[in-house]
Structures are given as structure tokens and as C-alpha cells.
Amino acid sequence: MVAIDDARTVMTARAARLGLDGARTALLVDHMLDAELRGLSSHGVERVRWLCETARVDPSAHPRELDRSDGYARWDGDGCLGYLALSEILDRELADPPAGARLLVASHCFPTGRLGWYAERVARTGLVALVTATSTARIAHPAGGPPLLGTNPICLALPGDPEPTVIDVSMGRVTYGDVLQAAAAGEPLPEGVSVSANGGGQTDPAEITAGRAGILPFGGGQAHKGFALALMVELLCSALAGTDGHAAVVLLARPRAEPVAGLRELVGGRRFPGDGGRDRRAAANAAGAVEIDAGIWKWLTTG
Amino acid sequence: MVAIDDARTVMTARAARLGLDGARTALLVDHMLDAELRGLSSHGVERVRWLCETARVDPSAHPRELDRSDGYARWDGDGCLGYLALSEILDRELADPPAGARLLVASHCFPTGRLGWYAERVARTGLVALVTATSTARIAHPAGGPPLLGTNPICLALPGDPEPTVIDVSMGRVTYGDVLQAAAAGEPLPEGVSVSANGGGQTDPAEITAGRAGILPFGGGQAHKGFALALMVELLCSALAGTDGHAAVVLLARPRAEPVAGLRELVGGRRFPGDGGRDRRAAANAAGAVEIDAGIWKWLTTG
Fold this sequence. Notes:
Chain A is an alpha+beta fold. Chain A contains eleven helices and 13 strands.
């Protein structure tokens, strides 16, 4: 376990090498530390390393507004790192929030990381946020073939007291983080979570990281439904933003009612989606400490 | 097999008894016949009978506009049958379509039937339509308990030539039509598609039709994802429309690109979501004939 303050300090020092200003560095660190606190380490500190080692980050780039009309604004990432582009677009839109609703479309906006982070920020301003985005193709057709679609999550956040309600569903049967982990360990993936180009069978994770094999959509015997949802996200984002590059789409809307309490009562003692991550973060904050992978911590603190 | 023209004639004669004017009767018949042509008989002629036998239809009711602002319009069904309310709301909004996007919220809007029917109509005008709606609670928590959520489908339609692309995913593992059929035949549902109030086990369909047991969300071992999606729809609709009654939410947006052809090429010879219903309808139209359940046909043509 590492003290959260220490984690933030060393993550900030490392991320500072990307050449971004202090505020934007802090934003990145907040995104990734928040994922780590929620137990989603594949969106956590590991991404700081990934950015430092492989991404080209242009510190001078900012998203650019392309088009604006009734209830609609279209932006382009314009070379800005996706995390920062989507954050800045939301900040600028929320400076003049919609009285009713507004659809935001961001082309060339990648990577965006964990969508719940953005949706939660919007919900803290009193608006409902529905967020979706495309990313690198990982999901294959249930009948086999190469990866065709990103894990294409759909995320909804509603304002709440003391905290927003955030629900985030990705369409993959496993996360790409699971694949990377298996690849690093030299282990095959469990049967039935991936498909080779010819369909079925156990897949070497290296085939997936190389882009030759794909993860199955979630759904078990009804994986065609998970595939249809991932395709829906891909079609929506591409139709609104263009087919070139990855895109994010955000719907902002003014709520008229507070349905969470009533639905929580109906669900009773059963698991309410989103509570796992929220509770893990609360526990980490209460303890002031977070579990960080030893290898990543070593990378953060040395060299 | 019945000639499509004959089916339309007898459905219209029957539905006319609801007391609606000719245009609205034709709209209802078109919705239900379209479902029948697509092989979705649970949204088909059966619903004409259901309306005639159990629904209170107020022929004078029309949806009422409650609120309008930037990119946003909120309506109430106001006692109007959901099918007709949502159709009329869309017709009135499309008479002055958005240059960018518009979010439509319809409270007290039930039943709305097959959402693809509305989304396809919107897409024929050149807009993208994302449609969702709540309905009678059928889906239970994967851990058991009473039905909590509607099957809460999400539907996307994109303009296309010669036809729009329509993808429609409902969050239930089985349809309520399957449940009604099993109940009528006195057969239990297959294991693992439903949950008793205490979780697990085989459920008597009569328990579901009585509202005491529920259908599982789709997802197999990841039914929590299907549940989360159904909950997302419930929260979105209720937050925007109010927690009282069922609601529909429609996002209209102007597309900037045509992504379907490229994605079809990627999917190749594998099944493309939505094509099954589209092809069945095309085949029925080509043959000029549709398969209609003998019992329903007898009801339509006698008495």
C-alpha cells in the first residue's frame, strides 16, 4: 500500500515530463489515480507509463470548435491528447451549460480512458451526462474474424447527494488489461473470451495484442447482443464525428427528477451497478492509501 | 400464409373499433404489421387484440408540449396511447427538424411497442435517431427478487440508401412474448432465463405474468452488465421525464458521415445486427404474404 498523497506526488513528477502545464498534468494524474482508487488499475498508473513511453503528446495542442447550432456542438481533438481534449471541451461547454440539452461530438479524441471520470464531473454540476466513445478495435464478431470494434463503453452519470451515481458498461467480455496481463505472463486466455480469426478455440493473448485475434463481446450465448451494442456505439460516434479516427459523444441534459433513491430501494440489498468502484474509492480515501502494482511503483519512483 | 393486403384490411377493420380516426388507425396497423413482417409477432397482430381487449384508448387524447429550450423538447403523453403519442411527437418535431441535435423526452408515453419502427421513420428523414423507453417491470436483478426494470431497449437508426440501418437491443434474456407463450402452453421456462423471488431455479411463467418473478437480463455469466444497461435506461428516462409512469427518450442528430458501408465491409459475411428482421420483411414484401398465427387470424376475421 502507498499513501495516496505520495502516489499523487510521484505520478505528477513523472507525468510532468510530458511537458504539459501544471493544470493539465494534474488533470491526467487525477484521472489515473481515480481509476487506481476504484480498483481499475488498467486505467490507472499504468497509463502514465504508457503515455510517457509510447504516446506522442503535443503540449501546445487544444481541441478546436468546428460547428455549433441548436443543442449541438462539434469539436475536434486537433492533436490534443484525448483525455485533455475531452476535459477541455466539457469545461468550455459547462461554462455556458444548456438549459435543456446539448449533444457534444468530439472527433479525433483518443485516448479518453475511463468515461465515468468525465460523466461524474458533469453530474457534479447538476446535469445528467451520457458518454460514449470509440477506441482501438479489440472486439471481434461472435462468429470469429479479426477485431472490428472498440470495447465501446456506454456511461451514464446522474447528479446525487453526496455523490453522483455513475454506471459504466463496456461491451467486452474481458478488459484489454486482462489480455495484456495474460500476455505478460505468457498464459493463454480462458476459453470462450476470445476468438481466433477462424472463430472459437483458445487464443494466445499475443494474437490479440498484435491485432490478429479479438475479444468476444459480453453476453455469453447472446454475445450477438453485446456485439450489436458495440456496433451501435461505433455507428453513432462515426456518423456524428466522421469515420476517421476515434471519437467521443456526450449528451448533456437537465434532469427533472431524482430517480436513484427509489431504484436503490427496489434493488434492496442486491448489488447496485457502479457501487463497487465507488465503495473501493471511499475505502481507499478513508485509509489514505492505495494498492499500486510493485513494478509500476518502481518505474514511477526510479529512473 | 396470408396476403399482406388482406392482413392490413382485416387489422384495420378490427383496430377501427378503437374509435381512432383513419390516419391514427393506419399508423397503429402499420406499426404492428411491420413487426409481423419482420417476424416479431409479439409486437404484431397480437397487440391489436391486446389493445382491443384490455387497453383504454381515448381517441380524443393528444400529446402535450410541456417545455422547450435549446436542443430540447419535453412532452407528455397526456392520456394518448403511447404508440400514437410518440408518433405524433416525432411528426411535430420533424416538421421543424434540428440543424444540429435535439433531445426529446416524453413522459406518460406507454406502450410504445417496437422502437425500431420510430427510429426507422426518423432516419428516413435524414437524421440519426437514438431511441429508448421504459415499460412494465419484467427484468429482475441477477441475484433474484421481483421484476424491477422494463426490458428497456436501446435502438439506433441511421439514414441509408436504399434503407436505413436499424439496430435494436433489448436487455432481457428472453422476450415477454416467450413468457406469454410458455404460460399459454403451461410449460416452465428453460432454466436460467428467469429468477424466482429467491433467486435461481426454474420459474413457472405464470409467476412472471403475475409480476412475482422476473426475467434475467441478457449476459449469461455477465448478466450484471445487462442489468446495468437496463438500469441505465430506467435512470435516464426517469431523470429526464419523471419517476411517474413510463417514458420515452429520443435523440435526433444530424449525421456528418456515412459509416455503415465501411463497417459492413469489416463484418464481411458474418451476421450484421438488424439484418435478420430487415431481410424477413423484404422477403415477405416480395412474396406479398405474411405468416400469421392461426388463432390470432381467427380472432381478427370473426366476431
